[in-house]
């Protein structure tokens, strides 16, 4: 049942190309636009008029929401707030008609996310569920559903479901941009062509990646603390990489907006600290590079995730994990993969059960 892989998590990491292909396939048939007008989806008139979006989610799904924020705001120019569901539900949020609330939940059964979605509905907002499970409670508590099509995920650590959630957020952002008239057809065509390249890029990246990462895991695995940094669209990737490592290896991690380092976390750095920097090509890359220099000036070690072909990054990091080049806004869906594998390799080196980490459940049905 593990299809020749040693764990479900590793199998699921390797299923990511197919899972994303499945999630985008029939939604990207048109060359200059995304189609989301499918059974169970929201009325498109509604998407056309939406003025404000709030995403509620927990854990890894929250990170997918953060990526959704950057893309929706950049492409569709609709303001987006993203909030951890357990906070949102107790916040007496300002919400009402005309607002769209998106609950992202792989299982469709996470108690806090469901409660936040119900609250939003009571206040008159429209609720969209992004979930991987047909017939789950989230599908019943929403006005519309967009399914990720990752297939069953057994490992407690979310991997392929995360990539599919990110893919759905890209699709939704592009559809919103088209409906709201904020992106011209040539640009949409470019982005859709790049979206369709993702499955192949994932397969290419996975080829030989475990062998490349193993020595990195052996070198840094004994560390007791890892700091993850990123900016803009790289920040959710840093947050997700840090969550993966802490949940399966039990190593303390922190993830920070790189620009915040000077405001506290830099005090944690010493010669023993590995710092994972998400440094894929983007308009803020030079800023990330200066943060990497600050890290190295304290004697700490930089492990960078960078875009293939960027030779400059090698001068500022001890280890560079490369991902294929795509439009810079699409890089997160690839950049997270080496971080999944790094967490995986470190946990395995420590002899841990990655499929069922201690204290964690796959589905959190209590608050
Ligand atoms: O089923 P959900 O997407 O609502 O689950 C949310 C979180 O519990 C989940 O993402 C959790 O953080 C994962 N174990 C992370 O790998």
Mind explaining what this structure looks like?
It is found in: Cytoplasm. This protein is α/β, with parallel strands linked by helices. 44% of the residues lie in helices and 16% in strands. The chain has a 5-stranded parallel sheet, sandwiched between helices. Strand 8, helix 12 and strand 9 form a beta-alpha-beta unit. Helix 2 runs parallel beside helix 8. The longest helix is centred in the middle third of the chain and has 22 residues. The two termini are 32 Å apart. The relative contact order is 0.14. The mean pLDDT is 97. The chain binds 5-amino-5-deoxy-1-O-phosphono-D-mannitol. The site of 5-amino-5-deoxy-1-O-phosphono-D-mannitol has 17 residues, from helix 4 and helix 11.
Give the helix/strand layout.
Elements: H1 8-14, H2 16-24, H3 44-49, E1 52-57, H4 59-76, E2 80-84, H5 85-88, E3 99-105, H6 111-122, E4 126-131, H7 137-140, E5 144-147, H8 160-179, H9 185-206, H10 209-220, E6 225-230, H11 234-249, E7 252-257, E8 274-279, H12 285-297, E9 301-307, E10 319-323, H13 331-349
Parallel strand pairs: 1-2, 1-3, 3-4, 4-5, 6-7, 6-8, 8-9, 9-10
Helix pairs in contact: 2-8, 2-9, 4-8, 4-11, 8-9, 9-13, 10-13, 11-13
The structure holds 5-amino-5-deoxy-1-O-phosphono-D-mannitol (M6R).
Residues 58-61, 105-107, 110, 113, 156-158, 243, 247, 360, 363-364 line the site of 5-amino-5-deoxy-1-O-phosphono-D-mannitol.
Briefly say what this structure is.
By secondary structure, the protein is α/β, with parallel strands linked by helices. It is built from 13 helices and 10 strands.
């Amino acid at each position: 049942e593990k299809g020749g892989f040693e764990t479900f998590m590793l199998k699921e990491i390797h299923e990511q190309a197919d899972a994303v292909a499945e999630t985008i396939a029939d939604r990207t048939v048109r060359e200059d636009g995304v189609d989301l007008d499918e059974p169970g989806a929201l009325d498109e008139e509604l998407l056309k008029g939406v003025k404000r979006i709030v995403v509620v989610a927990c854990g890894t799904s929250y990170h997918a929401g953060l990526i959704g924020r950057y893309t929706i705001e950049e492409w569709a120019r609709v303001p987006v707030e993203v909030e951890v569901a357990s906070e949102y539900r107790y916040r007496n949020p300002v919400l009402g008609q005309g607002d769209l609330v998106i609950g992202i939940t792989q299982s469709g059964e996470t108690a806090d996310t469901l409660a936040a979605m119900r609250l939003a509905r009571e206040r008159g907002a429209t609720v969209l569920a992004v979930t991987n499970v047909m017939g789950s409670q989230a599908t019943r508590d929403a006005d519309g559903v967009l399914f990720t099509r990752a297939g069953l995920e057994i490992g407690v650590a979310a991997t392929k479901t995360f990539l599919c959630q990110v893919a759905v957020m890209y699709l939704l952002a592009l559809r919103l941009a088209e409906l709201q008239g904020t992106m011209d057809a040539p640009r949409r065509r470019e982005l859709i062509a790049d979206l369709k390249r993702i499955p192949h890029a994932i397969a290419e990246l996975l080829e030989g990646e475990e062998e490349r990462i193993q020595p990195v895991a052996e070198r840094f695995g004994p560390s007791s603390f890892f700091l993850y940094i990123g900016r803009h669209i790289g920040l959710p990737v840093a947050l997700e990489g840090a969550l993966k490592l802490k949940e399966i290896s039990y190593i303390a991690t922190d993830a920070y907006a790189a620009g915040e380092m000077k405001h506290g976390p830099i005090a944690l750095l010493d010669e023993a600290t590995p710092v994972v920097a998400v440094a894929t090509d983007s308009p803020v890359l030079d800023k990330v590079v200066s943060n990497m220099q600050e890290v190295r000036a304290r004697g700490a070690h930089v492990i960078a995730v960078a875009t293939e072909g960027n030779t400059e990054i090698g001068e500022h990091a001890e280890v560079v994990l490369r991902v294929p080049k795509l439009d810079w806004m699409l890089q997160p869906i690839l950049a997270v993969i080496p971080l999944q594998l790094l967490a995986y390799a470190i946990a395995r080196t420590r002899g841990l059960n990655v499929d069922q980490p201690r204290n964690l459940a796959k589905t959190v049905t209590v608050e």
